[in-house]
Structures are given as C-alpha cells and as structure tokens.
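User: Can you model how protoporphyrin IX containing FE sits in this protein?
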Amino acid sequence: MNLNELSILSLYSAMAVYALAFISFAFDLAKRSAAVKTADEATGLAALASVPVGVGAANGAQPAGRDATLDPGKPAGKAGAAASAGTIVNRISARIANDAATPYGRSKSLRIGVSLTVLAWAIHLMADVLRGFAAGRVPWANMYEFAMTGTLLIVTVFLIVLTRADLRFLGTFVTGMVLVLLGIAALRFYVEVAPLPPALQSAWLVIHVFVASLGTGFFALGFALSVVQLLQFRREALVTTAGRVRLRFLATLPSAATLENLAYRVHIIGFILWTFTLMAGSIWAEKAWGRYWGWDTKEVWTFIIWTIYAGYIHARATRGWRGSRSAWLAIVGFSAVMFNFGVVNVFFKGLHAYSGL
Amino acid sequence: MSRPSDHYDSPAPAPASDDVIQPRLGLVGWLRWFWRQLTNMRTALFLLLLLAIAAVPGSLVPQRSSDPNGVTQYFADNPDLAPVLDKIQAFDVYSSAWFSAIYLLLFISLIGCVIPRTKHHFQALRAQPPRTPARLMRLAGFTERTAPAGTDAAAAVDSARSLLKKSGYRVALFDSAPARGGREFSASAERGYLRETGNLVFHFALVGILITVGFGSGFGFSGQRVLVEGQTFVNTLLAYDSFSPGRFFSDSSLEPYKLTLDDFSVTYETQNLEAYGQAIDYSAAVSVTRRGEALQTGVVKVNAPMRTGGTDVYLLGNGYAPSITVKDPNGVVVFTDAVPFLPQDANLTSLGVIKVPDGLSEQLGMIGFFYPTQAASSTGAFYSSYPDLEYPMLTLNIYSGDLGLNAGVPTSVYSLNTDKMTRLTGGKTGVESLELKPGETQQLPNGLGSVTFNDAHPGAAANDFSGSVLRFASFDIHHDPTQVWVLSFAILALLGLLTSLFVPRRRVWVKAIESEDGSLTLEYAGLARGEDPALEAAVTDIADRHGRLLVSSTSAVPATEQN
Ligand code: HEM
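Assistant: Here's the modeled complex, given as structure tokens:
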C-alpha cells in the first residue's frame, strides 16, 4: 500500500469517526430538548412563561439584554476568566456567558462527541499529511486536496475555539458539514496524485490557499453561530409571546445577544484572513499572470465575498441592522464562500482552472 | 460621537413626531439633506451590498477584458441575446457606467464620512478624558474594594494614575465636591485612540487604492510578443504583436533594450504514471542587452518574471514553431520561416497557418497540424499522444487563390480566410494532404513548387527527434508604475484593519471615597467604546494590581502607624 492509498484509507476512517461524533452530538441535542421539556413541566411555566425560564436567573446568570440594538457593548453575563486584553483567541473567549435560559451541563454524549471529534481530527490530519508526502508538496493543489485540507482546518479552528469558549453545541453542525464535504470530495473530486503544473509552483500557493482555507474555517463557525442566533432570536420572541417553541434544546444555549457577539468575533477574524487572502492572491496573480487584478471569475467571487462580509461588519455598526439582519448577511456571505468553492471552481470558466477535474 | 448619526453607538434620534411641519428646504437645504443621506452608515451598507450584487453578472457572462474570445463565442452562440446584453455593458461589467456609478458613489460616501470623523478624532486626541460620572455602580465591571488602612485618598488616586498611564491610558484627575462630609478623588482614564486611527487609516487606504488604480495605471502599458528560439525582439512599439497603452502613455518612455530567446526547455513528468507527460517546468533562457551595457543572461519562468529596462517580462504561453520553406518550381525560395503553431490540447496537437503571398503563380495558403508525437486513432484520424518530440509529424492542407491581404483589413496570422481560395488537398479534393517529418520535402499539387519541413537539428541520430522542431514562447511585457503604491496602500489597509478590530477602546474610572470613619473605599468601573469583550476582565485586573500596589506602599510605612 503506498502513501496515497494509506491517505485514502485514513480519510475514510476519519469520516467514519466523524459520523459517530455526529451521532453523539445529535444525541446530546435530543437530550437537551428532553431536559428542557422536563424543566418546563416542573416549573409549569411552559406555555405561560413571559420571561426566559427562571432556572437561569436562579443560577446567577443575568438574563441577557434581549434587545441587542440598545445594549450592544454591555456584558451579557459573567466575565471570562483571567484575560489579558488584545490577543485574538482572548477576543473569542472573554465574556462567554452562561446565560442560557435553561442551563445544561455537559452530557456524556456531548463529551463522547468531542472526544470522537478529536480522534477523527487526528486521523484526518494523518490523511492530509500522508497525501502531502505522497505528492511531495503541500496537500492543497486541487479540489480534492482543498476539500480535505479545508475541512481539516474547519475542525482545527473549532477545536481550538473550544478550549476558549464552550461552543460544543455546534458539534452537530461542524461534524455534519465536514462529513458532507468530505463525502463529496472523496466521491466527486478525487484525483490521483499529480505534480504541480508550473502555474501553481509558487510559495504563494502555500500561503494564499492556506490562509483562504483558514478564513473559511472561521466563516463556517461564524455561519453556524449566526444560524443558531436567528433560531434563538425566534425562540426568545416566541417565549415572550407565549408561543410554542419547536427546537427545545435552544433553551440550553446562550442567548441570541451572546451568540451574536460570538459570531461577530469569529467573523472578524475570518474577515481579516480573507482580506489577506485577497492581497496574497493579487501578489501571486501579478507574478503568474502579469497583473494583480483582472476580474477573473475567481477573483470576482473573492471580491464579492469580501464585500459581503464588509457589509456584515458595517451592519453590526448600523442602527437598525444589528441582530437578525446582520446575521442574515453572514449567512449570505458563507453561502457565497461555499458557492465559490463548489460551483465557481468546477463550472465557471477562468484562469483559475486547477480544480484538477 | 463623530461617527455617522446612525452608528449604533451614537445617541438615538429623537422620535419624529408627525405634526411637526418641516420647513421648506432651499437648494442648499436639499444638497445638505442629500449629503447627509449619502454619508450615513445605511447608505454605505446599501452601496456595499449593491456593489457585491453588481459584480456577479461579470462572472456569469464572459468579459472583454479577461476573455475576449469567450465574448466572440458568446455572440456566435446567442446571436439574439448578446447584442441586448452588450447594450447594458454586460461584457464590460467592471468598466460599465452602472458599476462605476456604484463604486464612485460608495467612495464619495466614504470620503464624506471619513473626513468629519478625522477632524473629530484629532480633537479627541487632544482632549482630556471626560469627568468621572457620579455613580460608577451601573457601569461595566464595577468593582468595590476597601483600601488598606492608612491609605490617603489623593495618594491612592495618584498611584492609580501611574498604573493606568503605564497601561497606555490617558488620565485626568478630579477632585469631586465633598459628598456627605468625606472627600472624593477620582481618576478618569481613556485608551484605545488607535482603534479609531486604525479605522480611519483603513478607509483612507481604500481611497488610496482606488485613486492609484484609477489614474495611475494610465501611465503604464502592456504588450505581447511571440519569440521563436533564436529570435530577438527590440523593445519598441512596432516590435509588439499587440500593445495596449495606458491613457497617459508615451512611447518615448520605452527603453529600447534587446531581448533574445536563446532556448526554451520543458520538463515532463516521467515517473508518475498517473500524470505521465504533464509539463512540470517551463524555462525560457533569454539574454538581454540594454543600451551601453554588456549582454546579460537570465531565465523567465511562469511565476518568476524578469524585471528589466523598466518593464516586467512574463512567460505566458509556449508551443512549437515548425520551420517551413517553400520553393517555386525552379527551386527559388519564396518563403522560409519558423511559424508558431497554437497548441490545441494537452499533448500539444498544434494548429498553424502559412501564407505565401508572393513568388508563386498563385497566392498560397496552408493550414497545418503539427503532432509532436503522432498517433492514429481507429478511424485513421491523427492525434498527438505525448507533448514532447518523440515522433513529430506535420500535415498540411493547401489552398490557392486570394489570401485577402490586399483589402487593407488587418488579418490574423493565426487564421486563414478561405472564402476566395480553392482547396487543393484533403477533404473532397481526392488529393491526400501533405505529411512531412522533419527534414522532408514534398511537391505542392498542380506543380506549384515544393514545401520543406526543415529539421532544426539536422545532424542528430536517425530516431532522435528531440531537437528537430523549434519552440516558441509568448511573452507579456508590462510596465505598471502603480503596483508599488497599490501594494503599500493594501498593506496600510490591512494594518489599519487589524488595529481597528483588535485594539479595544475603553474608559476606566478609579474613585477613592473617604468615609467619615476614616476608611477609604475604592471603586473601579469601565465603559466600552465599540466592541470590547475583555473590558470587565481588564477592570478587575486594574483593581487587583492597584490593590497590590497600595498594599506594598503602605507596608513600607513604619509599622507603628498601621496599628
Ligand atoms: C469602500 C467602501 C467601504 C468599505 C470596504 C468599508 C469597510 C469597512 C470595514 C472592513 C470596517 C471594519 C473595520 C474597521 O473598523 O476599520 C469598517 C468600519 C466602519 N466603516 Fe466602513 N467601509 C466602507 C465605506 C464606509 C463608509 C462610506 C462609511 C460611512 C458612512 C463607513 C463607516 C464606517 C464606520 C463608522 C466603521 C466603524 C464600525 C464600528 O464601529 O465597528 N465605511 N468599514
């Protein structure tokens, strides 16, 4: 068995473990829903509650300012642990509130899910490294390899952020998405190991593509947070009007305001990485094609994505656009990222013809 | 705040009441109103999103700037739709009136927004931190401590000042009016002015990029030139195959250096069977002579342009250039040249055109296919099975008649208009197309003369064709004086972005309140200006450090005073 076959084997193994992790995480969500139902019945407030269920307040966490437009900079809960200002990770970690309406500890399935994700990540890393050795270069030079490395980075970002902020509840989303992307990559994008064509022989391939994938990792996490934020916002609205909440587990997650702050912090890191991607890409384009910007399809989409996220950051600073509207922009932004990867690379004509398909 | 009035951090607008009758606006009033609309955050946001949407069509429809052949093809495929799209500049999206309008409005808005903010920021930079609020209790990170006994209020606030200063705060001290007997001192501190500076630098750098790109690029040019191995090019306007000057370009700025393509070599993958025959390296060995200087040699590669004589030389394409000689029936040479053939596929099946306008009884045109390694499919059609010269073969279809060169219309050297010509070989003529290996000669039909496929390396062994056909390289030669500027502005933008997103801007207050029993209460609190997740931790940290500072300074005092 050669290195590449070993890499493929590892990749399939990693996918199997991701699938198990996904199931564990899904199980955890189901348990959360059940717990919320019990808590609701116990307090008898299920249908009547006009404030987030009382357990949260009893636990010392103050209910979050529900109106994000009025109360943006204010803390939504307890301060994070010792924090020396300024570092990037700290930005995500500080002030992670446990301001859930129904606080919920870490269930066994959640912990199993995280452990399995770490295991799957390790195998995934091995698959990626082996592919790199098999090819004798960085493993991100065609669609198959982009997908493999990009998803690896998504999980890496997720796991690093986990050491700082409790976003374990996103496990279902992260493992699920990675599983789908890896599945598509393995089935549709697979290509044999091939040497780099001259156009890709550049240090900028290493930098530009790596940073783009890393940025995508942050955008993915931000996207998930924004989606949960919107769901949570709806739940909070339903609770105040005594409506019926479908996704009960939401009550165990942070408030919409906290989720919005988290999403923002993740997004700005992604945005900076994307800005750098854009610049590095231009420098490379100048070296390879003799012009730094030529509105090639791939350049157009990189620009569109950058502009949408700049819009998102602006929206967060514009009265009337904070909260749900800006969350929608983040979702549009990530859709454009996925479109750029999955559709533009494969179907659009342009100079960036290296999908390897 | 200096930010636009609808920045979330600005005071909320007074609720508009319906019965207020708006005074009639004069022209100036309207202009002012318009300007205010243009420079608020909502407009900026709208224009940004509009710009994103407006950029989409350019990726769906081929663009003249990046894919002119695609546009021609599109017109051929969609004869009804294409002219309509062309009317709305869909093939020139990024220079279209509507796209330009959006980004110009956006940038006017940007400038209108940033200038007043800059003014305010300069004022803020010189201003003192504001007075300490009367009650700190409701502010972020409020912390209350009791000072070690024997601490003096003024001294405590003084040590808080030096602590804050060391942490990069600007500090003002206040001596509040005595409240209920005891005295009250406070320090009001602010930091993070860099955040706004970074934001302004970022937005200004964007303007810088736009201006340099918009105006500066007018001074440059770009040109293309194909060189066969051994050929020389002199950097003058006429020597280019195609040339596009910027608006302000003058040809006196071309430095007439000489550039020779000495050798073009390609390395093919031969180990990895999955990628057998894939090109893994192109190297153009060139020599350059600048006026009054000795000859210099260099190598141009993809991804590694050569900078010389104020220009950048890029390697863009390459292929084979079979050398062909045509003689008249008497053996007099009427044409001899190495003709660049355009590659048609990965194995370099190449297509070329030879035009012989003079010297024969009729004008002659040939359409040639060149196969570096010829193979035949089951139907008998030829193709190339490998891109290097293993078994080279040239096939020629001959046409005679009017080449159309005298009509005064420029014609491409890569295409042959056969409308007014008669086909002499191949197709339905019943005459075989000519097939030539390097070094071979064949007679032209109708006794027109002969054609020779010259062997570029005649002395080689019988089966070694590796040097038999010359290669050509196509170079792009550019001059863009704005590149450095654009890069500098881009780096500035990135730095500005980093500071503005990661430097926290905050106010912190330390208050020392003497109570009647002589004990001293210390209060700490902060206020975020903009996104600042670490504020509370920072306030607690200051309180802790201040506490330690006070303890160490009081313990230095003789023990007797401490009771
Ligand atoms: C070319 C168009 C523009 C782009 C690409 C852009 C991009 C950005 C980005 C990326 C940020 C966040 C980083 C930072 O704070 O420095 C930002 C912030 C900001 N921009 Fe712009 N901007 C543009 C135009 C404008 C305009 C026209 C205005 C004024 C109406 C404006 C006002 C602001 C303000 C006030 C902030 C601070 C937001 C905050 O407090 O978080 N920008 N802009």
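A couple of observations from the model: The pocket of protoporphyrin IX containing FE is lined by residues A 310, 313-314, 317; B 3-4, 7, 39-41, 44, 48, 106, 109-110, 113, 198-199, 202-203, 206, 497, 500-501, 530 (CB under 6 Å). Chain A touches chain B through 75 residues (CB under 8 Å).
User: Helpful, thanks.
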